[in-house]
Amino acid sequence: MKEFNYTIKDAVGIHARPAGQLVKLAKGLGSTITITKSDRTVNATQLMKLMGMGIKCGDTVTIRVEGGDEEASENAIKEFMEANL
Predict the structure, then answer these.
(1) Is 15 one of the catalytic residues?
(2) Each residue of 30-45: pLDDT tens digit?
(3) Which residues are paired to 52 by β-bridges?
């Protein structure tokens, strides 16, 4: 299991466009990706639940990567977050 924290920098937070892109990326990876904010955790492949978390600019989320290709999946998610959120 790999885990890292990320603080959202996008002024709008996690909204429809980047949430959809994140879900698409997570579905293509060989690991299970979960995102936690406060006490709420959702699978990164569930668009409506992800958007329902209300993640805003300045919020810190914890991303957990579990599965067969954890290293590659973690790197892909980190790159996505830095480029889009």
Answers:
(1) yes
(2) 899 999 999 999 999 9
(3) none
